[in-house]
Amino acid sequence: MSGRPFSGPTDRFDRVALKGEDACGVDGHRMTIMQLLMLLGGLLILAGSFIVAWFTGVRRAYLLVLSSSFLVLALAFLLTFFLGSFRSRGLLLSANGLFIVAQILFAEGLLQRRGKTFGIAFNVTAFVTLFGLYCLFEIYGTAFQRTIVINAGLVVLMALAMLRFWIRRDDTIHDKLIFWTIIALGVMHCLRTFGMLFTGIIVDPNSIFWQATQIYILMIAMILTIEILASHFVESLDRLNTLRDRDQLTGVLNREGFERALAGFYAERSAALVALTLLDLDKFKITNDTLGHPAGDAVLRAFGEILLKETRATDVVGRIGGDEFAIFSVGLDRQGACAMAERIRIHLAHRHFPDVAEHLETTCSIGVATARSERGYEVLYRMADNALYGAKRLGRNRVVADSAPSAVEPGAVSRVGV
């Protein structure tokens, strides 16, 4: 019987293989060919879809694993078809072994889609256990017994996979759709498996129920494939957008990405308190010209790390010039923005750079401005830029708030009303 949620050798198929008779008759055999062609065609399309996705998008390993599961499943169905023509116990064992492999690959691919895995040791152990049980019941039990035992084992395997795949409230809609589609597929498989305890028509290839079940399961598999591929291409597009908007040296947004993020916020016309923090590395050109670009790049890279560490997840952090950076914060008042800016200033001042001479201090000047979003970004930027200019004019290595700074010592923060 099935080593896969879709189907597999049945008790009836076992009798055909061992007795060498065409139990379906001429018309029935023709129907079996039609079933085979339909299943093989569908499975090859599904497998090919994952391969195409692997070549055209981000090359994620789970795509090849899922493709392999459908290819192995197609081969298992092909061997199952020949059970009606050849007396071969080896063919029967091979077909069921492939069904089990396909199931394990399918579960592993789904987990890798979530960034998780069963691991090679678990997967090998699962195959040896399930195939060993099948061989044991092949020798000492009946086809009906081994069908129930193996499919129950596969139900347990998929249940474990779903427990590890389990969705959270903040997961994407794609992951949620994938999860519930798999649940629907598993429920159908369970009903078919345990329904065999009450009637044999479930496993009869000539029955309407069997044929309808195969079509239903194949359709669910196709829907699942479409959902996985859709999520893959959406993630690939997001990744491309991230690469497009991300400054590769510092890890923060580049100027275009920063401006796009701000345009998105102001397009929503959200009424909120916003803060803009402009940061400029002091005498960076001297460091770059004296020690070379590798040393300058090391400073920029470290400063990017500091910015990402000291800001909130909701803050928009960008590199808007060679040594100029900006932080746009929603819901952060002047005190909070100045405190964040001071942490960044202190962190950089205390950062040791082996390639930078001691007399070339690595510090930054920071200007902070806060305003209601209704006033517009231009007003906010002008205030922050004036504050940054004030920090530079007052001796650098300091934080100045808003547009009318007063003299302060390094490390102090000037807070002047808007």
From TrEMBL:
Catalytic activity: 2 GTP = 3',3'-c-di-GMP + 2 diphosphate
Enzyme class per UniProt: transferase
Transmembrane segments: 36-55, 61-83, 90-111, 117-136, 148-167, 179-203, 215-234
Assigned keywords, A-Z: Membrane, Transmembrane, Transmembrane helix
Pfam families assigned: GGDEF
This protein's name: diguanylate cyclase
GGDEF domain ranges (all copies): 272-404
Organismal lineage: Bacteria, Pseudomonadati, Pseudomonadota, Alphaproteobacteria, Hyphomicrobiales
E.C. no: 2.7.7.65
Native source organism of the sequence: Martelella lutilitoris
A GO molecular function held by the record: diguanylate cyclase activity
